[in-house]
Amino acid sequence: MAQPQQSEEADTGKPPLRVGMVGYAFMGAAHSQGWRTAGRVFDLPLSPELAVVCGRDADAVRAAASRHGWAATETDWRALVERDDVDLVDICTPGDSHAEIAIAALEAGKHVLCEKPLANSVAEAEAMVRAAEAARARGQVAMVGFNYRRVPATALARRMVAEGRVGTLRHVRVTYLQDWLVDPEFPLTWRLRREQAGSGSLGDLGAHIVDLAQYLAGEQLAGVSAITETFVRERPLPTAPSSGLTAVSAAGTGPVTVDDAALFTGRFASGALASFEATRYATGRKNALRIELNGDRGSLAFDLERLNELSYHDATEPGEHAGFRRILVTEPEHPYLEAWWPPGHGLGYEHTFVHQARDLVRAVAGGRVPEPSFADGLQVQRVLAAVEESAGKNSVYTPITA
Amino acid sequence: MAQPQQSEEADTGKPPLRVGMVGYAFMGAAHSQGWRTAGRVFDLPLSPELAVVCGRDADAVRAAASRHGWAATETDWRALVERDDVDLVDICTPGDSHAEIAIAALEAGKHVLCEKPLANSVAEAEAMVRAAEAARARGQVAMVGFNYRRVPATALARRMVAEGRVGTLRHVRVTYLQDWLVDPEFPLTWRLRREQAGSGSLGDLGAHIVDLAQYLAGEQLAGVSAITETFVRERPLPTAPSSGLTAVSAAGTGPVTVDDAALFTGRFASGALASFEATRYATGRKNALRIELNGDRGSLAFDLERLNELSYHDATEPGEHAGFRRILVTEPEHPYLEAWWPPGHGLGYEHTFVHQARDLVRAVAGGRVPEPSFADGLQVQRVLAAVEESAGKNSVYTPITA
Amino acid sequence: MAQPQQSEEADTGKPPLRVGMVGYAFMGAAHSQGWRTAGRVFDLPLSPELAVVCGRDADAVRAAASRHGWAATETDWRALVERDDVDLVDICTPGDSHAEIAIAALEAGKHVLCEKPLANSVAEAEAMVRAAEAARARGQVAMVGFNYRRVPATALARRMVAEGRVGTLRHVRVTYLQDWLVDPEFPLTWRLRREQAGSGSLGDLGAHIVDLAQYLAGEQLAGVSAITETFVRERPLPTAPSSGLTAVSAAGTGPVTVDDAALFTGRFASGALASFEATRYATGRKNALRIELNGDRGSLAFDLERLNELSYHDATEPGEHAGFRRILVTEPEHPYLEAWWPPGHGLGYEHTFVHQARDLVRAVAGGRVPEPSFADGLQVQRVLAAVEESAGKNSVYTPITA
Amino acid sequence: MAQPQQSEEADTGKPPLRVGMVGYAFMGAAHSQGWRTAGRVFDLPLSPELAVVCGRDADAVRAAASRHGWAATETDWRALVERDDVDLVDICTPGDSHAEIAIAALEAGKHVLCEKPLANSVAEAEAMVRAAEAARARGQVAMVGFNYRRVPATALARRMVAEGRVGTLRHVRVTYLQDWLVDPEFPLTWRLRREQAGSGSLGDLGAHIVDLAQYLAGEQLAGVSAITETFVRERPLPTAPSSGLTAVSAAGTGPVTVDDAALFTGRFASGALASFEATRYATGRKNALRIELNGDRGSLAFDLERLNELSYHDATEPGEHAGFRRILVTEPEHPYLEAWWPPGHGLGYEHTFVHQARDLVRAVAGGRVPEPSFADGLQVQRVLAAVEESAGKNSVYTPITA
Q1: Which PANTHER family does the annotation name (chains A, B, C, D) (predicted)?
Q2: Which of the pair, D5 or D255, is modelled with greater confidence?
Q3: Are the C-beta atoms of residues A93 and A22 closer than 8 Å to each other?
Q4: How many domains does chain D have?
Q5: Predicted complex ipTM exceeds 0.85
Q6: CA angle, A313 then A316 then A322, to 5°
Q7: Looking at the structure, do residues C219 and C143 belong to the same domain, yes or no?
Q8: What is the CATH number of the domain that holds C240?
Q9: CB contact, 8 Å: B394 with chain A?
Q10: pTM, two decimal places
Q11: What is the pLDDT of residue B239?
Q12: With DSSP H G I counted as helix, E B as strand and the rest as coil, what are the percentages for chain A, rounded to 5?
């Protein structure tokens, strides 16, 4: 086992928050950036330390530790969650292991950050919520990683909805469009296997947009009607254990056991209507998470491919001068921008993880339930379950059960 | 020296096509522009004449005739369809009168252009198709006015799909967003009454996007799953017979008997997925008919608010240089552009009616079935009926029956 | 039952305004659309009649008359300006004939509309202004055809500047970018010959942007510093008399005697700075007239390739919600929009000529000096002359002399 | 003197590159991010260490060191450049101190990174180039910090120009628009004083766009014609020593001794034309560095406010399908993207400093002259000097002297 070394945060004079991360692929790299940077940019009550990273392949995890700046390594997450020098367990693995790791970590007295979707089933998610509630009584916090709440533009949108600038909500329309499966020769990575990923575009992309839509709307979905589809049902097997979105094709094929695309409509509790589309077959759309809210006082629109911008239409203005304005969300009064660059100097994707780390550190220090909580993650899981149920029952409208 | 002559249509030396138009509000004004202009811009085999316009109020129809340049007036559409000096009847009335007028005109030996939606019910539309087929044997043509097929950009999109530039279709997503009902004090015009309009956003906006989606896809929808909603169920009565989209509010209120918004997902015959949204409550969106098609060779996107542009992503290009390109559809090789202005000098909404007139005149002269035919209009009506059926049955997936 | 009547213009019951047009190429077609449509859309005090069109080639002008709906033809503009049945002479010829025709028409008692640039020299333009002033005493009006003042979005911009929404002006930046000369094989049309066109991109495109910049700013340029360039100095001769922007190449070449591009900076009377660029070599830019004004209270931006939109930044708003808003200039309260289509149904390029006709008819009926007057055209000519002078003197700053 | 501590990079097993940074305001924070992150994301031959940071105020520099993660501090740059544990001196101070620090550091055997503009005068820049050349013989490298060459989209643009995709260059137009001086109450920070900043918008913004234009064009400017202006000549004095772009106003005013805006046109060596505008008064434009290149084979356009995108028009394509395409510069084959996130997950402003650090580390390890070199910085300085000379001589065209 590698030993912790003198870490970069040692000189801040603040109490440390020692992070142990499980998984080190795409999400692991992004979370590493978040933990490394948050305390350098924001004034935090605790100083995050990249204490231990865990992965099954000892050589690979050592290389990742060296690359990303983690002081020590583990090859068994069970060892990691028991370490005394870890305060918070950050779970960056595929969804099938979330429940087991998170519950063990909470029972071991750790704070937990768990990547989305919270779990691969409602039952798992319910168990995680129970564990989080028990841990909360012990002062531990648990957060699920819906990082797109922490784009400054979406956080501004939430603030504006809360201020009443959208008014009575009528419509929410959201798409999350990617195109990395258009090529039928793209291999069968773990994201295309139900046993690991739980679902396909639904759990990966749909979870994000369900959470974001409910977060921005400030209310929950009451029911959904859904269609799902798997366009390419057989794909080449990867040669090596795949990680993240890239993989190498190999001889032999296997069945795709998750959805390629999921479309659903729904009703919010207030009666507002919603439409959702998650797909990996939207040729030319790389990361097009787009959301628009229409209310009787205004509208908001956001596109993740232009994440420094928020569109806003103020319906209380005279029609002669009204129009969707492009707010460049880089002003010091915008969420998270107090610590960054001058106006017009935009942020990128990974900053959402810096902001997530910031907010989680503050929640830990303040003993507050962080947003989004495991309960929020469970509720998203219930929506996803209703989507799958509706899709399996001829799209019939399916209420979200609490 | 040549002498001044009387009529601008008299001197073309071409046989006339004498048009009798029923209705003279918004659509009547637009059609008048189309008939007046088509022969001035395009080289047509027949010379359209604005012969007779018909409306119930004699003074109002005379004023409209004077304004729009119609040579004569009628106050009873039955008289108009019987006139010997009318070759083609152009129906610009609300949907409840389409079937009766169109069938009478066809039986009277006239060509017919009928505004969309073709009818307020499938049964009416079927009767219209039968009348059109009978008339076709006599050399008459019948067209339904889905004018958005005739934006140069959508016509180019159709051409590109037919050339295989989109490839195997995976997704079609369409919205038609307007916002003129956001104000609950907007009065109860004919468009909000089921007995006249048949339906609300569904027949008005939804008919357009169903037709356009199927036209561009080159295939038909197999089934739909739908939600509809009426957000504001009681509105002030208008003081005077309303026309078009504007009206004056008055004392008293009445029930809105049509949908304010309709959302539906669907499957194309090929297995491609589709999503549709038609609404009059999308605050800040004035005429946002937006359609995107994703296939395995490319994608196309169009926005009616920027109607001189077509977005195209060519997936056969190397990723390094690929991207959605904005084609400014104003080049001489683009559809309908051979007769207009130099590149970059854009067209507007009304040009779709000029193009519609052009194509219909050519179909009349050539004895060809025009596109979109009454059969096309009937098929759209069947989709709308399936949408209403699904919305009434808890959104259950409802096949489109032939 | 009303009887069909002859001419669409004959039945308006309004006094006619009989137009005689000289030239029938690109501008002639556009003006024809304007005259034909203005009285059909707007409520005008006089009813424009397309009385006589004039061109040197008898067959060609007869064909043009038939196509565009002119009642009679002439082959000598001197005959046209003397006709008793012509009230207004509309000059759509190259710049070298503007002065002679306009002065003769004014002396013959006609109103005059003259395409831009007003003339090919300051001296000619001065003579035209003197003729217009003399004619004004006789109740005649004279207008120069800077049609881009009559895009609803630019007219709205002017209104907003006049209302103080831009405040103290700091910057005006304008480009007019086209690309039809990028191909060195494009032939040597009249627009590339100094003796006919006066100048190249400067008089064609530069005249538009100088006029528009001064119009929107509400003030005049005090001086300029300029660079001009001819990139391709020899081009193939056209086979036939060229018209408009299209032509056929032929054997033999000849020298390009005008500028291909003109760049200049300048100062407004108030001290605001300006930059201008006019070119026919901006590959991919088809008709990109773009103007932006920055003042201490706000900014405005316009792009002719998206002519139904105006961008506006209100600097008096809190920074948190401020941003350039895209005003879709299609609302009934917007300039010229009272008579057109519902919100979101955009207009096109040719509508500027309809609006020009509308405003000119009203000026004629009201006996008012129309905007832009010949004096306005002369002032633009003086700016263009200063540009050429500066370009010839090593770009030295050259004041605009009155 | 603070002692170096065990630093975050100690565990990479690579030789260190120990950085000593002078200045810790806006640029210092950005450079810190760059040094901290480069080795975590890219595979570098040396491991950057944040060794020493230097500032005049001991308390402030200690706070900055703690915040940004520097192991030690100095209060005198002369001490810093003499330290044995510093390999590279990174100069983030105002321009008036660049020459002195850089020359001393080079003479002390250090590699140097110097923020732009290289110096406040051509003479200083020449001395710096001489020092860099002498140091080069000793294996030292010297780079000037034109970080906007290292946006992936601009780097891709450079690659595409080099591949001939733009062809013979005709036009380059560049603006760098900000608006932070619109408010006349914004205080007189060091950026508004000639003795510290050298010039105003010219050296701050103009230096960037002159460098970027020449870099992308692949050639140098031959001469310029310029206008400069100071709109607000007196401003409130700041209460405290100002840093960066933010400051607090105070009692009393002082004269602004630099330009607020600079506009210039120019000619490239090849005959292509260029226009430049740098201003801090473009209301609503926050960081709008926009550049467009037009050549006979294609065009490129970039906007720093949307820095993950590059627009490209390929003029060799048939006009029917041609258009400016929006390349989302987030693909693995794009410059710098091999190490970042999946497609569509955009980067931000600070990443340019990570890339700068990457490239400089590799130059140091490889003993190569980095781009942009001090010689490149000197050449930009000569352009800026010609701009000021032209502006002082009635805008007369002023050649750039070598």
Answers
A1: BCDNA.GH03377
A2: D255
A3: yes
A4: 2
A5: yes
A6: 50
A7: no
A8: 3.30.360.10
A9: yes
A10: 0.95
A11: 77
A12: 35, 25, 40
